[in-house]
Amino acid sequence: RKRVFSGIQPSGNLHLGNYLGALKNWVAIQEDYENYFCIVDLHALTVPQDPKVLREKIREVAAIYLAVGLDPEHCTIFRQSRVSEHTELAWLLNCIARFGELSRMTQFKDKSRKEGAESASVGLFDYPVLQAADILLYNAHLVPVGEDQRQHLELTRTLARRFNHLYGETFVVPEIMILETGARVMALDEPEEKMSKSSPRPASYVAILDEPDVIRRKIRRAVTDSGTEIVAAPEKPAITNLLQIYAAMTERKIPDIEAEYAGRGYGDFKKDLAEIVVEGLAPVRERALELLENPAELDELLESGAGRAREAARPNLHTAWARMGLD
Ligand code: TYM
């Protein structure tokens, strides 16, 4: 069976973008692959985190993984920090990654813009190399992610090819899997910006764990464009975003939805969209809250997942060592 690897950072609140761009797809494909779904807690440390909050968020992500329907029978669910092979391989890859190529990563440029690259952590700069290690360590064939990860995945492929070229065939060069709809969910209050966990504006995202009434309010207040027509078009980024969310949630085609709402107003459309999102997320929320009442069980799941992940990872790290002359 081919392997799938993907991960989410336990920073901030998981939102509709994470659900539609990643989680929903993971659930859909899980039975066809051997899956490793990681909580990338070391990546979360690349920007400041409050230890107390981080501890809670890690469990929250584990609960959400299960609540959306990931099945531990098909998926190994674990924490990155508990499988030290990730950081060990990252070091080997650090030594073939180039300063120049990391300097060109747009996510680094975006995230370090606020305070300037001078005071960004070295971890933030090195982030994509750890991500490459995550994936290559398992020889994953397929990496299902949202559109914002494309550049990181291209770097992963470059590093795999470079390593293979320098030291002989070692790593699988992974394929990127990005869905057509839902891969780039934009902020509800600013459709030129992507929906983001680190946003200080709660109105910009629908959190997976938001209460139904909060979801309804956020969607009601989502910005719209001038005009009244419900159509996807470049000059209508806000309605286009809402249509994409609608399409991804219902697995319907956008033209189909446009036709249904022809001649109807934004208000009607948003009301229906809110109910669709509530209907999709409410069961996830309820299940996640239930699971969070029993943190010991979640911890156990993560522990046993780490054990299995390590077993898969260890031999590949040893191969990389040997190829580089460290055997
Ligand atoms: P993170 O935690 O930012 O996001 C997790 C997943 O959600 C997707 N995503 C979105 N999809 C659609 N619309 C959005 N607005 C949106 N925001 C986020 C992301 O594309 C991602 O799939 N670097 C990764 C974590 C990571 C990883 C990995 C992923 C670390 N190692 C190895 C894959 C493989 C990240 O920051 O995800």
UniProtKB/TrEMBL annotation:
| SUPFAM superfamilies linked to this entry | Nucleotidylyl transferase
Q: Which UniProt keywords apply?
A: Aminoacyl-tRNA synthetase, ATP-binding, Cytoplasm, Ligase, Nucleotide-binding, Protein biosynthesis
Q: Which Pfam families match?
A: tRNA-synt_1b (PF00579)
Superkingdom of the source? Bacteria
- Where located? Cytoplasm
Where along the chain is L-tryptophan bound?
A: D134
Motif span ('HIGH' region)? 10-18
| Principal cellular location given in the protein's record | cytoplasm
Provide the catalytic activity annotation: tRNA(Trp) + L-tryptophan + ATP = L-tryptophyl-tRNA(Trp) + AMP + diphosphate + H(+)
User: Which residue numbers does the motif 'KMSKS' region cover?
Assistant: 194-198
Q: What is its EC number?
A: 6.1.1.2
Please name the InterPro entries in this protein's record.
aa-tRNA-synth_I_CS, aa-tRNA-synth_Ic, Rossmann-like_a/b/a_fold, Trp-tRNA-ligase, Trp-tRNA-ligase_bac-type, Trp-tRNA_synthetase
What this chain does, per the entry, is described as: Catalyzes the attachment of tryptophan to tRNA(Trp).
Fetch the NCBIfam families from UniProt.
trpS
The subunit structure is: Homodimer.
Q: Which PANTHER family match?
A: TRYPTOPHAN--TRNA LIGASE, MITOCHONDRIAL
Q: Please state which protein family the record places this protein in.
A: Belongs to the class-I aminoacyl-tRNA synthetase family.
Q: What is this protein called?
A: Tryptophan--tRNA ligase
Q: Which gene encodes it?
A: trpS
